[in-house]
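Notes from hallway chat w/ T.B., transcribed later so I don't forget. T.B. wanted the structure written out for a chain they're using in a teaching module, and asked if we could keep both sequence and structure tokens in one place. Agreed to drop them here.
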Amino acid sequence: MLFFCSRSQGLTKKRVGTLDMMYGAMELLTKFFEKPQINTTTAMALPVQVAIYVPPSSRSVIPLKVKQMQVLDVFQYDTRLNFVHWKDTHDPSLRSWNRAPAAVCRGLASGKLQFQPYFLPVCGSSPPGNLEISFVPVIKTFALPDGQSLTNVKASSKTFRQPVLSSVLPPATVSHVSAAHWKHFWSLALTSVQRNVGYRLIVGCIPNRQFLHFINPQVFDSPLCPVCQSAPYISHHLLFHCPTKEKIWQEVIFEFLWPTTSINDIKEALLSLDFSNIWYCQLAGITPYRIVLISLSQIWLAHVIFIFDKTSIHHTAIMATIRSNICQTTIEEDKCHSLQ
């Protein structure tokens, strides 16, 4: 949390959204890392990559294995003079790190790598002091943008959260949705799948093979759609333009909506949550947007089953499920109206 370069090594299994907000809050604070005086025990508990850095004048690269090292792996503590120093490069305990310790040692000796200002003092002898691990000296150097010391500020979590949220740019697609349409969307009585797939479509979080191929081509060897094998597998293709999905939407339009409605009309309505252009429904007792959201969720479920269970996508089976869900929704709404 305190040191930027070490964040990728810890807390990797925690909630990403929560961590992003915490890291964002840390980056908004002013830091003066030249001032803190940490003790030797705290220094030995640090990751090595926090203790050293590459100066701007150097082209040196820190070995990858250094990211896994703690200071105590390559340094030792002199109890008599109360300072830490580099282990002998022939020390047997360094063999598991291969050549990385020697490379760092040479870099420090040549000046291509340097110690961080807060780590440098512990490399010289000093009088014995408090030997408990403490990052209080580091935290005391943090300040808010207005200059207030972090240790003297009494503020709610909301105060810190607001500048973090204001510094994050939302996806461009979200700006197309008005506050009124968002409010209406969250007020709808939808299933978790219907709401989730609609929300993910708007914010651009539908998983797709093109993205997976980009980040891990060894596992996902092709960016093409696994269903039709003829087009890049992006979210809009997955849900709307794959030939099988297009056929489903065309049948939904023909059976439930106004015949001149197009797939692009449906897509634009979902991305903006503005269904004013899809106003007509051939079936009494249900609104057009419910038909659209039910159809979208069933297409998504069919695709998930295809990916994980290798069950072929048949438009007739999906249409039967859509009809069943629409009929069930109509019956439930009729019951609600009769109770009123």
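Follow-up for T.B.: The beta strands are 52-53, 75-78, 83-86, 114-115. Might be a good example for the class.
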